[in-house]
TrEMBL record, chain A:
Pfam short name (any one): FtsX
Transmembrane segments annotated in the record for this chain: 21-44, 64-84, 119-138, 158-180, 200-221, 227-247, 279-297, 309-334, 369-387, 399-420
The organism of origin for this protein: Actinoallomurus iriomotensis
UniProt entry tagged with the keyword Transmembrane: yes
Protein name: ABC3 transporter permease C-terminal domain-containing protein
Keywords: Cell membrane, Membrane, Transmembrane, Transmembrane helix
Membrane disposition: Multi-pass membrane protein
GO cellular component, one term: plasma membrane
Main location: membrane
The keyword Ubl conjugation appears for this protein: no
Domain ABC3 transporter permease C-terminal: 67-182
Superkingdom assignment: Bacteria
Cellular localization per UniProt: Cell membrane
UniProtKB/TrEMBL annotation, chain B:
Organism: Actinoallomurus iriomotensis
Gene3D superfamilies: Winged helix-like DNA-binding domain superfamily/Winged helix DNA-binding domain
Ranges for domain Transcription regulator PadR N-terminal: 7-80
UniProt-recorded name of the protein: PadR family transcriptional regulator
PANTHER family: NEGATIVE TRANSCRIPTION REGULATOR PADR (PTHR43252:SF6), TRANSCRIPTIONAL REGULATOR YQJI (PTHR43252)
Pfam families in the cross-refs: PadR (PF03551)
InterPro entries referenced in this protein's UniProt entry, alphabetically: Tscrpt_reg_PadR_N, WH-like_DNA-bd_sf, WH_DNA-bd_sf
Amino acid sequence: MTLLRVAGMLGRGGSRAERARARLVAVGAALATWFLFGAANVLALHGQLDDRLGPIANRGTRPGTAFAFGLMILPIAAFLHQTGRLASADRERRLAALRLTGATPAQVRLLGALETTRSAALGTVCGAIAYVLLEWSIRGLLLHLPTTAAGVPPALGLAAMALVIAVAAVSGLLAGRHVVTSPLGVTRRATRRRPGRRVLLVPVLGCVPMVARFAGLPVPYRPYSLLLGAGLFAVGMMLSTSLLVWASARVAGRRARSAETLLAARALETDARPWGRTMSVLGLAVAIGSGTGWIEAGIMDDRHTLDPFWLTSFTLVDLALLVAMAVTAAALLVHQAEYLMEHGPVLATLRATGVADGELRRVLLRQGIIAAVLPCSVAALIGLLGLTDTGGLHNETWAWWPVTNAVLMAALGVLAATLTTKASQRRLQRAVSPGRLRTE
Amino acid sequence: MSIGHVLLGLLTERPKHGYELKREHDDRFPGVKPIAYGQVYATLQRLERDGKVAVSGTAKEGGPERVVYEITSVGTDEVRRWLAEIEPPAPYVSSALSTRVVLALIVGGTADGYLLRQRAAHLERMRELTARKNTAGISAGELLATDYALHHLDADLRWLETARQRIGELTKEIRP
Amino acid sequence: MTLLEARRIEKTFGRTHALRGVSVAIESGEVVAITGPSGSGKSTLLHCLSGIMCPEAGEVHYDGRRIDTLDEAARTRLRRDAFGIVFQFGRLVPELTAVENVALPLLFNGDGREKSATVARDWLERMDALDVADARPGELSGGQLQRVAMARALVTGPKVVFADEPTGALDSLAGEKVLGLLLEAARVNGSTVVLVTHDNQVAAHADREIVVRDGAAAGVVA
C-alpha cells in the first residue's frame, strides 16, 4: 500500500525530535503491554499462594488486583497521548509539504496516525517478548516452577496487545485533529478552546445518590446506585480537571504580580488541556493514595499490627501509585518539551532582551505549581471524603494517619509536577540559545 | 508621454488659460522639470490646429487678458486612448554607472573603491530625500515624486551590489 | 563620544566564519545602519554588539566598559537595563495581550501590575497602536506586531535600541511608518539606534552606514 510506503519513507526522514517521539511512544506502549500482561497473569493464577504475595495470593482479591494493574494504563495512556503530540509542529510542517504535493487532508491525518501506530506496535511487541522472557526466567530459574504452566494466556495476551495498538492509533488520529494542514502551511491548533463547562454536570450527577443518602432520602437499587454515583463522580472529576487547571490559571493570571507568574498562567490558560489530562491522572493517584490511608488506618486501629498479606498489599498499592505518578510526571515532561519547542524563538527573544535564565526557569516552575496545586488538593480531599466514618475507629488518633497521608500525597503530586520542570532545565537552555533567534 | 497629453489631461477638469496650465503642471508634477511658458503656448497652438482643443473665451484676472482653452471631444478621445496605453518599459542599459565600472576595471584593475564611493554618494542622496519626506507639511504629490526618486536610487544601489558580486566574471572577460 | 565599539571581533559557527575581524565604533545618540548582503554577518555583529553572543576574539566595549568578558548574568543585566531589542517578526509572547507584552520588561523589573500597564499603554499610544492594546499577537497585522514589539523594546527607556531587520516582513509603506515611529521615539528618548538591514531605503533613514561584507566592515561610510 502506497500510504504505508510513504509513512516508511517519512519515518526515516524525521527530525531528532520526531525520532525521540517515536522512541517515547514505543516505550509507553511497552509499559502498557507490561501492565496488561501483569493483569492477565494475575487472572490466570490458580489456587491459594503464599500470603507474602499479598493480594495475588488470595483467589478473592485477584480480580481487584488485575483491575488495579489495568488502571495503571491510565497514566500510560496520558503519557502516550502527550508523546503523540510531541514534535507535532515539526511533523505538521512536513505533512504540509505533502499537501502541496497533492495528498488529501484525510490521507495526511492518516499518515500521522500511522506513524504513531507503527511506533506503538513496535513497542508492544518488544514489551510482550520482554515480559514473557522475564516471566519464564523467573519461573524457571528463581522459583524452579515448570515453565510450561500458565503465564499469560495467549488469547488474553494478544487481546491486550491489540488494545494497546488500537489506543495508540486512536490517539494518533486525535492528535491530528488539532491541525489543519493546508498546502501553504500549518494553521496551529484549530481548537485551543477553553475546556467546556458542561462537563461539570457529570460529577454533580454522581453526587446525587450520596447526597440523597446523607439527607436521609430513599435511594433505590442500593448499593449499585451508590457505586454508579461514585464511579460517575470519579470519572467526572477526571474529565473536569482541565477546567480546574484552566480556572486556576485564569485566576493566577489576573492576580499575577510578577512577569513569571503572568507568563506561566497565560500559557496554561491558553493550553490547559494537556496539563488537565495529565493532572487528572495525577489527581486519581493522589485520591487513591489518600483513600488507602483510611483503609490502612482502619486495619491498624483494628489489629494494631500488619500481617504479611496487608503489608504486601499496601506496599504494592504505594508502589503502583509511585509508578503512576512517575509516568504522569514523564508525560508532563514531554508536554513541557513541546512547550519549549513551540515557544523557543519567543523565549530566546525574551532572553535576548534581558530576561535571566533563572526567571525563565521560574516560568516553567510556576506553570507546574499553578496547574498542580488545585487538582491535587481537590483530589486529596476527595480521597478523604470517600470514607467519612470516623466513628468506626476505636482510637481516634488514627484519623490523623489518612489526613497526613492525604497531605503527603497532595504534596507529592505537586512535587512531581514541579520536579518535571527542574528536569526541563537543560532543554530550556537549548531552546533559548541565541541560535534560535535566527529560525523562523 | 508628451506635453500635449499632459495639457489635454489638465484641461479635462475645466477650461484653462496657458499660464494656469503651466502653474498646474509645475505644482502637480514636482518630480519633473518645470515647463517653459513658450512650450505651453506652442503646444496649445498645435492642439488647436489638430482640433483637440478650442478657444472658449478670454479671462482677465488683474493681469493681461488671457486666452482660455477648452478640450474638444477629439481631445478627450485622444487623452483616453493615451491613458489606456502603457509606457514602454525601457531598460536603461549601459548607463553612466556601468560605463564607470567597466572603465574602472580597464584602467585600475579594480572597481571596489568606485563601487563603495558610488554607494556612499547614492545613500547620501537617499538620506537627503528621506529627510525631505519627513519634513512637516510636505504635499502628497511631492511625496510621490520623492518616492519615485528613492526607488530608482535604491534600484541603482542593488545593481551596484550585484555588480560587486559579478565583478570576478567581468574582470575575466575584460582581462582574459 | 563613542558609546559602543567592536574591535577586530571574530565569530565562527562550525565552519562558517561569520565575522572576521570587524571593527566598528558607534557614537552616542546617532542612528547607524549596518547593511550588507544576506549571510554577510550583520546579524551576528548585532548579536555581539548587544551582548547576546560573545565573540571568540576581539573586544566589545559599551560606555567605557568591556562587555564581552562579562558573564551571562552581567550581560543579561546590561541588556535589560541599557538595551532594547527588536527582531524581524516581533516575537511577542502569543498568549499575552499587546499591553501585557509591552509591560513584560517592567514586570520583570519588579514594577507593579497597574503601573506597568499604564506605562505600557502610554508607549502603545506613542507607537500608534493603542487601538490593539487588548488584542493578542495572533490577531495583529505585521505592522501592528512590529509597533507593539517596538513599544516593548522602548518601554524601559534604553540607551541603545538594536533593531534586526525591523521592517523585513512589512511592505515599504508600512515599514516606513513603523521605522519613522521608532526613530522619532528614539530621538525623543535620546537613544542610540543600531539598525541591521539589507534594505537601502531603511538604511537611508540612518545618519551613517556601516557596510558588512563577508564578515568584515567593507567601508564605514559617513
